[in-house]
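Record type: monomer structure entry
Structure origin: computed from sequence
Chain ID: A
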Amino acid sequence: MEDRDLVVAESPVGLLVAVTLAKGARRLEKSMGMVSAGEDDAIHQVRVSCRRLRSDLKLFRKLLAGAWAPELRADLAALAQACGEARDLEVIAALVRENATSEDNEEHVDTILTTLTLGLDRAAARSAEVVLGEATKDLLTTIESVAVAPDLTPKADRPCGEVLPELLQSATVKFAQEADKLKPWSPDDHWHEVRLLAKRVRYAADTSASVLGDEAKATAAQAATYQELLGQHQDHCAAADALTGMAADAAAQDDPELSFTLGRLTERHRAARKPLREQFLGLYHRP
């Protein structure tokens, strides 16, 4: 029987906090092992582990006493950031391959992909060095230790069935407040913020599902759909930004033809945002 199976609606919510932290530690440890073994998608899994733990700490923030939680969230954010460049370049390279057409100069596309791949290899090596370093091992040890007996507020003694709906609703309301503001012409950063909030709802609902059941599972599934659409949107934004930077470099090196190809690819990714925005808004505002 897994730890999560021991938590029921009548259990003190502090028990779920401890169980969730322990599970997060195991998830992070597993992803670190993937990096050590050189497995595909390993760096991304470390990043996901950090984000999930940070989201859980955010969900339970009113139950956590002392300064340990903000410090832990900051350390997890730093580790996730150290893994960010490699993941971003991996996604951007895949999008360039997917969106390049026969109309594009094949030699230029190969040059662009080579540049991205070289950058990815260097970034992945830097990320792996951080993930396998002593600081990350110490972070894992800290999480494991905290999970045994986290410092909690008196509210953590209340039953899960009483507290979790409040916590989940708080995350859901925050998402809805920001999603309601989105328009087709809203800046990219606003769309990205809503994506992060959708992810927070998804993780919060998933963490709560063992106690709250089908309703929380439904909320998690809906949030995952929103997150997927907004994630695709963010990937195209990141690709457009990266290619714009490469175009500026090509222009500075007096290579107008390569700069032209980069400009074409950039506009293609910018254009890809529109149908994703329309799809999200249509789904979000559906009766």
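Annotation 1: Residues 1-5 have pLDDT under 50 and may be disordered.
Annotation 2: The two ends are 41 Å apart (CA to CA).
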